[in-house]
Write a structure and sequence with these properties.
With 90 residues, the chain is of the alpha+beta class. The protein folds into two domains: 22-55, no CATH class; 57-90, no CATH class. The protein has three helices and two strands. The mean pLDDT is 79. The protein has helices at residues 26-32, 59-67, 78-87, and strands at 40-43, 51-54. Strand 1 and strand 2 (51-54) form a beta hairpin. The relative contact order is 0.11. The radius of gyration is 17 Å and the shape is extended.
Length: 90
């Protein structure tokens, strides 16, 4: 393996406040592409590491796009549509 293809993991730490709040370190916010007002999702398996990802779309976003006749600045992939549907609370 060449040294240019291997990128070591980055480790960041944060402190939990008395209210259970955590400020996401700058490196993590940058990596996730989140900013003030962004939503993030935590996937918590029964075992293993917790997965963190930005919430890109909600099902309501799909309805708004459909109401506008599909004229959107960005195209939603089928995977993003499926993920939005999976997040829907019935």
């Amino acid at each position: 393996m060449s040294s240019t293809s291997f990128k070591p993991a980055t480790t960041v730490e944060a402190t939990v406040t008395s209210k259970g709040q955590v400020t996401l370190p700058k490196e993590l916010r940058k990596r996730l592409g989140v900013q003030r007002g962004s939503r993030i999702r935590f996937s918590i398996p029964y075992s293993g590491a917790v997965h963190v990802e930005p919430v890109l779309y909600d099902l309501e976003d799909l309805w708004r796009m459909a109401d506008r006749g599909g004229q959107s600045k960005s195209m939603m992939t089928f995977e993003q549509m499926d993920a939005a549907k999976a997040r829907r609370k019935w």
